[in-house]
Amino acid sequence: MSDGSDDRAADPAGAAAALFDQARERLGDALREHLGRLIVPGALRSAMGARPRVVPDGRAWRVGTLLIGDIAVYEVGDVLRASEERRRGFTSEAARRRAEAEAMCVRGGFAPGTVVNVDHTGIALSALAAEGSSGPLSVRNRTVVIRWTSAGAVMPLEAYLREKIDMLFA
């Protein structure tokens, strides 16, 4: 009788999906963060004063460089804290753009102080078939691995999820 490990090795997408299902079970009632989606008004609405806003687009658990939703998995993008629009002195253009993005969250319906994940990228687990990759996930030697640093360091997805979830509950 097989424990299924040969089947998982033959199907990296199925192995990754099973790992994320196990992660969801372990995360249970842990705190979820908001996902946001940028809405840019068309020319007519802009002419009438409408401005870009970030609207709610679900919730997910942040586990390291991943956002794990009820069904989908995403790579973390920008993480903002919604804040009211106000006049401030800025030392850089980047700080000005960040403040504008944080104000877009409030315009979209988030309460000030709420953490909002925007520009997150969906991970297609089906792309892992045939030794492919999607976002930070790839397959090496029939094992699903995650690139968890910008320098390209990788580790097995199973160990990564176990370690990061353990840290959430420590």
Give the integer mean of the pLDDT values.
Answer: 88
Overall geometry comes to elongated
Radius of gyration: 19 Å
Q: Roughly how many Å apart are the termini?
A: 37 Å
Strand pairing plus helix content: what structural class? alpha+beta
* Helical amount: 25-40%
Query: How many extended strands?
Result: 11
Largest sheet: 7 strands, mixed
Provide a count of the helices.
Answer: 5
Hey, roughly how much beta strand do the residues contain? 25-35%
Please list the strands of the largest sheet in the order they lie side by side: 5-6-1-2-3-4-7
Which assembly state applies to the chains in this document? Answer: single chain
Low-confidence stretches: 1-8
- Report the order of strands and helices: HHEHEEEEHEEEEEEH
What are the salient characteristics of this protein?
alpha+beta, 170 residues, 7-stranded mixed sheet, single chain, disordered N terminus, elongated, 4-stranded antiparallel sheet
Outline the structure in words.
32% of the residues lie in helices and 28% in strands. The chain has helices at 5-10, 12-27, 43-47, 93-107, 157-169; strands spanning 33-39, 53-63, 66-68, 73-75, 78-81, 115-118, 121-122, 133-134, 137-140, 143-147, 154-156. The strands form two sheets. Strands 5-6-1-2-3-4-7 form a seven-stranded mixed sheet. Strands 8-9-10-11 form a four-stranded antiparallel sheet. A hairpin with a 2-residue loop joins strand 9 (137-140) and strand 10. It starts with a helix and ends with a helix. The model is unreliable at 1-8 (pLDDT under 50).
